[in-house]
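Submission checklist for the structure archive. All mandatory fields must be present; incomplete records are returned to the submitter.

[x] Identifier: Putative phosphoethanolamine transferase
[x] Organism: termite gut metagenome
[x] Residue count: 210
[x] Sequence attached
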Amino acid sequence: DNIAYREQISAEPRNRGKDVDDKLLLAEVSQSLQGHPKGKHLIILHTKGSHWSYYQRYTRDFAKWQPECVGINDSCSKKEMINAYDNSILYVDTFISNVLDQLRDKKAIVFYAADHGESINEKEHLHGTPRKLAPPEQFRVPMLVWMSDKYLENPAHQQAFEHLKQQAEMKVPRRHVELYDTIMGCLGYTSPDGGINENNNWCHVPAKAQ
Protein backbone atom coordinates (compact mmCIF):
# COMPACT_ATOMS: atom_id res chain seq x y z
CA ASP A 1 0.00 0.00 0.00
CA ASN A 2 3.03 2.28 -0.22
CA ILE A 3 5.95 2.97 -2.57
CA ALA A 4 9.08 4.78 -1.40
CA TYR A 5 11.98 5.63 -3.67
CA ARG A 6 15.60 5.63 -2.56
CA GLU A 7 15.85 9.42 -2.90
CA GLN A 8 12.77 9.86 -0.71
CA ILE A 9 14.08 7.50 1.96
CA SER A 10 17.54 9.08 2.08
CA ALA A 11 16.04 12.59 2.29
CA GLU A 12 13.99 11.85 5.40
CA PRO A 13 15.26 13.61 8.55
CA ARG A 14 16.11 10.31 10.26
CA ASN A 15 18.44 9.38 7.39
CA ARG A 16 20.19 12.68 6.79
CA GLY A 17 23.95 12.31 6.98
CA LYS A 18 23.81 8.56 6.51
CA ASP A 19 25.34 6.65 3.61
CA VAL A 20 22.88 6.17 0.76
CA ASP A 21 23.07 2.41 0.39
CA ASP A 22 20.89 -0.66 0.72
CA LYS A 23 20.98 -0.76 4.52
CA LEU A 24 18.57 2.21 4.55
CA LEU A 25 15.94 -0.31 3.46
CA LEU A 26 16.30 -2.34 6.67
CA ALA A 27 14.50 0.29 8.75
CA GLU A 28 11.81 0.42 6.06
CA VAL A 29 11.27 -3.32 6.42
CA SER A 30 10.97 -2.98 10.20
CA GLN A 31 8.53 -0.09 9.91
CA SER A 32 6.41 -1.96 7.36
CA LEU A 33 6.25 -5.07 9.53
CA GLN A 34 5.24 -3.04 12.57
CA GLY A 35 2.50 -1.36 10.55
CA HIS A 36 1.08 -4.69 9.44
CA PRO A 37 1.30 -7.03 12.45
CA LYS A 38 -1.48 -9.33 11.23
CA GLY A 39 -2.70 -10.70 7.94
CA LYS A 40 -1.04 -11.12 4.58
CA HIS A 41 1.73 -8.70 3.78
CA LEU A 42 4.05 -8.29 0.78
CA ILE A 43 7.29 -6.27 0.83
CA ILE A 44 9.33 -5.69 -2.34
CA LEU A 45 12.85 -4.27 -2.00
CA HIS A 46 14.74 -2.94 -5.00
CA THR A 47 18.39 -3.00 -3.97
CA LYS A 48 21.53 -1.73 -5.64
CA GLY A 49 23.30 -4.97 -4.74
CA SER A 50 26.63 -5.20 -6.55
CA HIS A 51 25.94 -2.84 -9.43
CA TRP A 52 28.81 -0.69 -10.66
CA SER A 53 30.50 1.26 -9.14
CA TYR A 54 31.19 -1.60 -6.77
CA TYR A 55 32.98 0.44 -4.09
CA GLN A 56 29.90 2.68 -3.79
CA ARG A 57 27.77 -0.29 -2.76
CA TYR A 58 29.36 -0.89 0.65
CA THR A 59 30.58 1.09 3.63
CA ARG A 60 34.24 1.28 4.59
CA ASP A 61 33.91 -1.35 7.29
CA PHE A 62 33.16 -3.89 4.54
CA ALA A 63 36.33 -3.11 2.54
CA LYS A 64 37.86 -6.44 3.55
CA TRP A 65 39.67 -7.31 0.34
CA GLN A 66 42.45 -4.97 -0.72
CA PRO A 67 43.57 -3.29 -2.87
CA GLU A 68 40.13 -2.27 -4.15
CA CYS A 69 39.00 -0.32 -7.17
CA VAL A 70 37.71 3.10 -6.12
CA GLY A 71 37.99 4.81 -9.49
CA ILE A 72 36.96 4.35 -13.09
CA ASN A 73 37.61 1.24 -15.18
CA ASP A 74 40.78 2.26 -16.95
CA SER A 75 42.54 3.10 -13.69
CA CYS A 76 41.87 -0.26 -11.99
CA SER A 77 43.41 -3.68 -12.44
CA LYS A 78 41.31 -6.82 -12.69
CA LYS A 79 42.34 -7.80 -9.15
CA GLU A 80 41.28 -4.41 -7.77
CA MET A 81 37.88 -4.64 -9.45
CA ILE A 82 37.31 -8.20 -8.23
CA ASN A 83 38.25 -7.16 -4.69
CA ALA A 84 35.74 -4.30 -4.79
CA TYR A 85 33.11 -6.64 -6.22
CA ASP A 86 33.78 -9.21 -3.49
CA ASN A 87 33.47 -6.49 -0.85
CA SER A 88 30.07 -5.58 -2.27
CA ILE A 89 29.02 -9.24 -2.12
CA LEU A 90 29.99 -9.35 1.55
CA TYR A 91 27.77 -6.32 2.12
CA VAL A 92 24.87 -7.93 0.21
CA ASP A 93 25.20 -11.11 2.29
CA THR A 94 24.99 -9.08 5.49
CA PHE A 95 22.02 -7.12 4.17
CA ILE A 96 20.11 -10.31 3.33
CA SER A 97 20.98 -11.79 6.73
CA ASN A 98 19.57 -8.70 8.44
CA VAL A 99 16.33 -8.97 6.46
CA LEU A 100 15.98 -12.64 7.42
CA ASP A 101 16.63 -11.83 11.08
CA GLN A 102 13.55 -9.59 11.08
CA LEU A 103 11.41 -12.45 9.77
CA ARG A 104 12.62 -15.47 11.73
CA ASP A 105 9.77 -15.30 14.25
CA LYS A 106 7.10 -14.88 11.56
CA LYS A 107 5.45 -17.02 8.91
CA ALA A 108 7.57 -15.70 6.08
CA ILE A 109 9.12 -16.55 2.75
CA VAL A 110 11.86 -14.52 1.05
CA PHE A 111 12.99 -14.49 -2.57
CA TYR A 112 16.21 -12.80 -3.65
CA ALA A 113 17.37 -12.61 -7.25
CA ALA A 114 20.05 -10.64 -9.08
CA ASP A 115 18.94 -9.10 -12.38
CA HIS A 116 22.24 -9.79 -14.15
CA GLY A 117 25.82 -10.82 -13.63
CA GLU A 118 29.09 -9.10 -14.50
CA SER A 119 32.15 -9.82 -16.62
CA ILE A 120 35.31 -8.40 -15.07
CA ASN A 121 38.45 -8.11 -17.16
CA GLU A 122 41.61 -6.02 -16.99
CA LYS A 123 40.54 -2.36 -16.73
CA GLU A 124 36.91 -3.03 -17.71
CA HIS A 125 33.62 -4.48 -16.50
CA LEU A 126 30.73 -5.51 -18.70
CA HIS A 127 27.07 -6.44 -18.39
CA GLY A 128 24.00 -6.24 -20.60
CA THR A 129 25.70 -7.83 -23.60
CA PRO A 130 23.16 -9.18 -26.14
CA ARG A 131 22.10 -12.70 -25.11
CA LYS A 132 23.60 -14.40 -28.17
CA LEU A 133 26.97 -12.81 -27.42
CA ALA A 134 26.99 -12.61 -23.63
CA PRO A 135 29.25 -14.94 -21.64
CA PRO A 136 27.47 -17.17 -19.08
CA GLU A 137 28.44 -15.08 -16.04
CA GLN A 138 26.31 -12.19 -17.31
CA PHE A 139 23.00 -14.06 -17.45
CA ARG A 140 23.42 -17.05 -15.11
CA VAL A 141 22.75 -15.50 -11.73
CA PRO A 142 22.03 -16.97 -8.30
CA MET A 143 18.57 -16.89 -6.79
CA LEU A 144 17.72 -17.53 -3.16
CA VAL A 145 14.53 -18.84 -1.55
CA TRP A 146 14.26 -18.82 2.25
CA MET A 147 11.36 -19.96 4.43
CA SER A 148 11.07 -19.37 8.18
CA ASP A 149 10.62 -22.22 10.65
CA LYS A 150 7.08 -21.04 11.37
CA TYR A 151 6.26 -21.10 7.66
CA LEU A 152 7.64 -24.62 7.40
CA GLU A 153 5.35 -25.87 10.17
CA ASN A 154 2.78 -26.30 7.42
CA PRO A 155 3.42 -29.79 5.91
CA ALA A 156 2.65 -28.53 2.39
CA HIS A 157 5.22 -25.76 2.73
CA GLN A 158 7.78 -28.22 4.09
CA GLN A 159 7.20 -30.51 1.14
CA ALA A 160 7.54 -27.62 -1.30
CA PHE A 161 10.79 -26.53 0.39
CA GLU A 162 12.24 -30.02 0.15
CA HIS A 163 11.31 -30.00 -3.53
CA LEU A 164 13.14 -26.67 -3.95
CA LYS A 165 16.26 -28.09 -2.33
CA GLN A 166 16.16 -31.14 -4.60
CA GLN A 167 15.99 -28.90 -7.65
CA ALA A 168 18.93 -26.85 -6.38
CA GLU A 169 21.00 -30.00 -5.81
CA MET A 170 20.16 -31.18 -9.32
CA LYS A 171 21.05 -27.71 -10.67
CA VAL A 172 17.71 -27.39 -12.46
CA PRO A 173 17.94 -24.12 -14.47
CA ARG A 174 15.35 -21.48 -13.59
CA ARG A 175 14.42 -18.11 -15.12
CA HIS A 176 13.34 -14.70 -13.85
CA VAL A 177 10.14 -14.96 -15.85
CA GLU A 178 9.09 -17.83 -13.59
CA LEU A 179 9.22 -15.76 -10.40
CA TYR A 180 5.59 -14.60 -10.53
CA ASP A 181 4.22 -18.14 -10.81
CA THR A 182 6.70 -19.32 -8.16
CA ILE A 183 5.93 -16.64 -5.61
CA MET A 184 2.19 -17.22 -5.96
CA GLY A 185 2.64 -20.99 -5.99
CA CYS A 186 4.96 -21.12 -2.97
CA LEU A 187 2.41 -19.06 -1.05
CA GLY A 188 -0.18 -21.72 -1.78
CA TYR A 189 -2.21 -20.00 -4.46
CA THR A 190 -3.57 -21.96 -7.43
CA SER A 191 -5.36 -20.86 -10.55
CA PRO A 192 -7.11 -23.64 -12.49
CA ASP A 193 -8.09 -21.20 -15.25
CA GLY A 194 -4.46 -20.61 -16.21
CA GLY A 195 -3.51 -17.52 -14.19
CA ILE A 196 -0.62 -19.42 -12.58
CA ASN A 197 1.49 -21.69 -14.76
CA GLU A 198 2.45 -24.69 -12.62
CA ASN A 199 5.28 -25.48 -15.04
CA ASN A 200 6.90 -22.24 -13.91
CA ASN A 201 6.15 -22.78 -10.21
CA TRP A 202 9.30 -24.02 -8.49
CA CYS A 203 7.27 -25.12 -5.47
CA HIS A 204 4.96 -27.33 -7.50
CA VAL A 205 5.49 -30.95 -6.47
CA PRO A 206 4.53 -33.35 -9.29
CA ALA A 207 1.85 -35.86 -8.30
CA LYS A 208 4.24 -38.81 -8.66
CA ALA A 209 6.66 -37.17 -6.18
CA GLN A 210 4.03 -36.60 -3.48
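[x] Structure attached
Curator remark: The chain has six helices and four strands. The two ends are 37 Å apart (CA to CA).
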